[in-house]
């Protein structure tokens, strides 16, 4: 579907799968899995990953060069709006005035649920400073709409806790968010396998961001390929429009006009 484009702000993408770079065994596996996923947007935790801060250490950008991928710096590990804003400013310096960022401000170390108050504060600051903000948030439809109104270019609600692999646990909240949105809704967190990704896309989400589901698979490269296919299948099914659910069966071949 060459004409089915994901638009994030002023940027356009063919792939609706966004991937992270953490938890892999090494950089070679990271690069191989990302390429197998077909992803164009790759998110990088600025506080945990070397993208040039330390010239003596391996540089992630050697395996996912910005000439081939859109690097999406994120604020993973930040627990205050101040820390998140500072991290985004650092990313802008490291990536030559790059303004597209993924904002996440966490509120709890065990569940990694977002601190919504701090997230709203950081989003307002970053948008005013000219950043294009893709924002991780809870599955609260009111908060999702508020983040859109602040000026975020994409809203990224969780489907289940980060790294849980539980799949979609909040279908009706996601549907409400999607129905009221005028910016892309990209599920961030909770996907565990390809069928989960398909379900997310069948609901009408614009994309899915994942990391653990690929990186912690027994074969990350193969899982990355599976996720790409799951995203495509779910998107096509959503666009096609599923048949109505019925209580009783109906014959695939009607008997009206049968030759007997």
Architecture overview:
The mean pLDDT is 93. Strand 3, helix 1 (27-37) and strand 4 form a beta-alpha-beta unit. This protein is of the alpha/beta class and 260 residues long. The protein has helices at 27-37, 81-94, 116-128, 141-150, 171-180, 194-203, 212-215, 220-240, and strands at residues 6-8, 11-13, 17-19, 41-45, 70-74, 100-103, 132-137, 154-157, 186-188, 207-210. Helix 3 (116-128) runs parallel beside helix 4 and helix 4 (141-150) runs parallel beside helix 5.
Instruction: Tell me, briefly, the overall form.
Output: globular
Number of helical regions:
8
Rounded mean pLDDT score? 93
Strand percentage lies at 15-25%
Binned, the helix content reads 25-40%
The secondary-structure element order is: EEEHEEHEHEHEHEHEHH
Largest sheet: 5 strands, parallel
Secondary structure tally: strands = 10
For the largest beta sheet, what order do the strands appear in spatially?
Answer: 5-4-3-10-9
Termini distance? 43 Å
Radius of gyration: 19 Å
- Ranges where pLDDT stays below 50 over 5 or more residues in a row are none
Class per helix and strand makeup: alpha/beta
Secondary structure layout plus pairing:
Blueprint: E1 6-8, E2 11-13, E3 17-19, H1 27-37, E4 41-45, E5 70-74, H2 81-94, E6 100-103, H3 116-128, E7 132-137, H4 141-150, E8 154-157, H5 171-180, E9 186-188, H6 194-203, E10 207-210, H7 212-215, H8 220-240
Parallel strand pairs: 3-4, 3-10, 4-5, 6-7, 7-8, 9-10
Antiparallel strand pairs: 1-2
Helix pairs in contact: 1-8, 2-3, 3-4, 4-5, 6-8
């Amino acid at each position: 579907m060459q004409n089915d484009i994901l638009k994030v702000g002023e940027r356009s993408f063919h792939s609706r799968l966004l991937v992270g770079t953490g938890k892999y065994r090494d950089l070679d596996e990271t690069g191989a899995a990302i390429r197998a996923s077909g992803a164009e947007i790759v998110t990088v935790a600025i506080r945990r990953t070397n993208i040039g801060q330390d010239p003596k250490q391996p540089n992630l950008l050697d395996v996912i060069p910005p000439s081939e991928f859109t690097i999406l710096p994120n604020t993973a590990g930040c627990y205050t709006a101040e820390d998140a804003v500072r991290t985004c400013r650092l990313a802008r310096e490291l990536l030559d005035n790059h303004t597209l960022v993924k904002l996440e401000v966490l509120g709890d170390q065990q569940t990694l649920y977002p601190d919504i108050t701090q997230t709203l504060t950081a989003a307002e600051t970053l948008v005013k400073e000219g950043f294009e903000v893709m924002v991780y948030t809870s599955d609260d439809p009111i908060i999702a709409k508020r983040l859109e109104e602040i000026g975020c270019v994409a809203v990224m609600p969780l489907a289940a806790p980060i790294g849980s692999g539980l799949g979609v646990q909040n279908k009706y909240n996601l549907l409400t968010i999607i129905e009221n949105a005028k910016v892309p809704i990209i599920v961030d967190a909770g996907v565990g396998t390809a069928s989960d990704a398909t379900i997310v896309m069948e609901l009408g989400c614009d994309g899915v961001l994942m990391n653990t589901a690929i990186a912690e698979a027994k074969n990350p490269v193969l899982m990355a390929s599976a996720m790409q296919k799951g995203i495509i299948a779910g998107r096509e099914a959503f666009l096609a429009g599923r048949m109505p659910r019925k209580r009783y069966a109906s014959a695939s071949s009607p008997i009206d006009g049968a030759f007997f």
